[in-house]
Amino acid sequence: MPSTDRIRDHAGQGATTVAAHRARRRLRADQARQLADILRRQLLTGGFPAGTLPHESVLATDYRASRNTVRQALDLLRAEGLVERLPGVGTVVVAQKYPHGLDRLMGLAETLHEHGQVTNEVRNLGPVPAPAPVADRLHVPPGADVLYIERLRRLGGVPLSLDLTYIPLDIGTALLGADLENTDVFRLLEAVTGHPLGHAEITLEAVNADAHSAAVLEAPRGAAVLMLERLTHGRPVDLEFIRFRGDRISMSGLLHRSR
User: Fold this and answer.
1) Can you say how many angstroms the Cα of residue 56 is from the centroid of all Cα atoms in its chain?
2) Are strands 98-101 and 249-252 parallel, antiparallel or unpaired?
3) What are the angstrom distances between the C-alpha of 87 and each of 52, 64, 71, 132?
């Protein structure tokens, strides 16, 4: 075989080897992500009550994965701040996410009552002219005053969410002297109107924390934040933009398939 052909053949074999290596790495990354998803669920639902994950070799056997795949999965969970590696101890759970249901219309204190007391730091409170999109959704004239409430909400002193709330002023005025530091707005609205709230339209999306939100929530700038936009009805009565710390809240719901 001419030397040029041997070189070309050798180069081709090298390219094939590199491609195969990259394919194996991609496959391991896929498997690690799948395993991380399974372990994350267990972490968040108390699947490791002792607070320590099984040894890597045990996880590899249980999930039919290689040790490298297990290590990569644990690295993903470590990057999320859910676990940490302690010398002489192993991989331990270091963070907890609180479950926030999407099945019922409830305030944060009602939702998390089993986990402790939710307290609110009222950062801003008072009438403001309604921006056009807010006025449209609350069915008030453009530029009409609405009550604006900004609260930092904590559970056990730990920041969970930053809530921006707009309420029509004919209802909101009664909230000016209310105990907003310890009471959900939903309960206060029902007390003021004398009627239960009906339903809410919600939009949930992931955003990165801006500098101000990150500082208030004591989160790293650019950290993952769950943004919940919620318009609550009897009549349109409460428009909220809620930024949840993504590392401390998990959203869940029960969905039925209609026929």
Assistant:
1) 28
2) parallel
3) 12, 25, 15, 57
